[in-house]
Amino acid sequence: MDKDALQLRLRDALFADLEQMEGVKLYVLVDTALHDPLDLEPARSKAVTLPISYAGLPTDRRPYIAPLGDIGRDLSLDKSLGVAIEQALREEDQREFGRSVCGWVASHAPPEILAKRLAERSIMTVAYQRRLFRYWDPRVLDLLSWILTSNQREDFFSCVSGWWWLGRDMKLESVISVESDSRWSSQVALDNEQLPLLTLAESTNRTLDVLQDMNHVPCTPRLQQCVAKAVTKALETWGLDTQEEQIRYALFAVLIGLEFDEHPLVREAMLNARRESKSPLCGLDAFTDSWWTSLKMELKGAQLVRDGE
To answer: Which part of the chain is the DUF4123 domain (predicted)?
Structure first.
């Protein structure tokens, strides 16, 4: 892949959107949990840390926004684009469990006000407990783009005029919204189907990382939904509560078929393993590669019949 050409294309796409907005300021959003790739860039000296109030997040690990200058003139922008590309590509010698350059936001608000608005979105209440919601991670933003309803997206992103991030498919994803001072402090209420998808987002994204490293098909919203639902089913149907188990189950669902565990032999093997106080996934070890290939073709054929009805 020509990274220089990709960087130029992303910059042009960002510039095209910004041309339609009057009076906004562009910022890069950086998560320092892994490291700070812009530590030596000029923009870093003007950065504003998100004032997130959460005991488990040290002050020096809070994300920040840094103002960027004119496109084509500010080297900090080019640096952020380059880092975002490297991390999204997940090349073999640069695979990390997250993203440092999370994206770019545009706002009319002063940086301190914008940082406060963004921090307000970072806490979720799950089972009466406060949880940190790292929604700024572009991998989570990918999920939010289809998990949230149109009204929820409008409310959630009303804290900015525009938000851009780099997807796994190397496309610049964006949400262009109507910035509102009156709506930014409200939390988005999630229903009983949305909440598990987000609370299990880490297992979903780790599974998508594995598939990307395997050079699987492009990461489309359909694939994301398939993985997210499989991870949820792993927990709710089979009680698989470790990330390793959830990832393994989701990989079977993607590579063999969503209904692989509904085959009588597979289901019985998983149930037997559970009766023996083992992980249900232990029951899958009894099947050969050729048997799995045969089941995959069987499930694919059944899906084609359903699609043709």
So the answer is: 80-154
